[in-house]
Structure formats: C-alpha cells, structure tokens
Amino acid sequence: MAMAANMAYLTLLALSIAAAAVESATTYTNHTVGGAAGWFFNDSSNTCSANYSSWAANQTFDLGDYLIFYTNTNMTVIQTYNLTTYQSCSTDDALDTDTFQYGGGDDQFGVAETMDVPLTVEGPNYFFSDANDGFQCQQGMAFEIVVNHGLGLPPSLNQPPPPPYTAPPLPSVVGSPPITLQPTSGGFRACVNLPWVVSVVLLAVGGIVFG
Asked: What is the pTM for the complete model shown?
C-alpha cells in the first residue's frame, strides 16, 4: 500500500515537473524587478527597496523575456555584459557595444517612470544603478542574472539592423536624352540634343552682335 502511494506521488511529481518545463519552453515572461517593491533607493536611510540579488536568484530568465523596472527619475538602469563595469558601479570606462543606459538625464526628479529592458544576449547579464556616482550600486542596487536560450529571440527582437544609407547618384549632363522642340506656330517638330541647340543659338547671337 505504501509503495503504491509512493509511486502515485512520484508520478504526480514527474507530471508537474514536465508541465512546468513545457510552460517555460513555450512562453516569454515579463519579470518585475524587485517584485512589488520596485526599483527604488531611499536617500535618507541609504537602502534599496528590495534585495535585488535575492530576487534574481528566484527567477528563471530566457531570451526574449523582459525586465520591467518600476522606478522614478532619481534612479538609472545600467545593463552591461562586462563584469568589470558591473563591479566598478560606473560606466566611465564602459564600451557602447556592451553597456547600455536606461533613464537618467531628466531634469525633473522623483517623476514615476517604467523601463522595459529586453533580454537579447544569452549568458551573464548585469544590472545596476549608477546614480549618485555609483553610490546606489555600492549599497546593493545591483544584480546579475544568467539568460538561458529558452525559445530563442522572438521575431520582434531578432531583426537585422537596417543597411547603411546610400545617397542616390547625381544626374549626369553628358549623354542626356534628346528633347523635343515644337514651335508655337504649329510648324515642324525636331528631336535634338540640348547642347547642340545651345551652341547654334550662341553662334547666331554672336553673328548678329559682331556682324
């Protein structure tokens, strides 16, 4: 009897794990950073609104997922793939190819805003706030995650960059197509090259002036 109960329990557990695996493999997820606490820093107590490392440790991240930062203009979000940049809590020596900033530069403080950050690179991803010259980061406003392949990037995030702009060629005067001259009196119609017509007119005018 006990063995049958154990077998039933193991079967149910296996089915639950399989269902969870199927669900995670067929959906993309929006992760609210810090949960209900959001992405905030208290300047009076010098504390973060959540333990972001603990929050991240309980999440599973895949390509195509989004991190949702509910915050305000007092904070920034720095995303980097460079461990040295992350550990320094600064973007001073960061490269444009591996470090990106969301928020910041607003002249109004304390204004609520939401930042949506897509996960587009597999492997280690690092996040921190460099506000107050990196002080917020040093006090724990930072976390690292590992992004799994999952379903891969959705089409909306997997588009190649547009080709570089190429200016159209300038029109060439040499070899221009013939034009049609038609007198207003309804006489003849002739197709000639414009440079030839101009030359004839100039010669005629010159003959009148110097004749």
From this structure: 0.65
| Alpha-carbon span 177 to 199, nearest angstrom | 17
Give Cα separations from 151 to 30, 61, 160 (angstroms): 14, 11, 18
Q: How far apart are CA 207 and CA 211, in angstroms?
A: 5
Cα 183 from chain centroid? 61
Number of Cβ within a 10 Å radius of residue 17 = 10
pLDDT in tens for each of the 211 residues of the chain? Answer: 544 544 554 455 444 444 444 445 579 999 999 999 999 999 999 999 999 999 999 999 999 999 999 999 989 999 999 999 999 999 999 999 999 999 876 677 889 999 999 999 999 999 999 999 999 999 999 999 999 999 999 999 987 666 767 778 887 666 656 666 565 555 545 444 555 555 555 555 555 555 5
Degrees to nearest 5, angle at CA 68 with 63 and 70:
165
CB hemisphere CA count around 152 (13 angstroms): 3
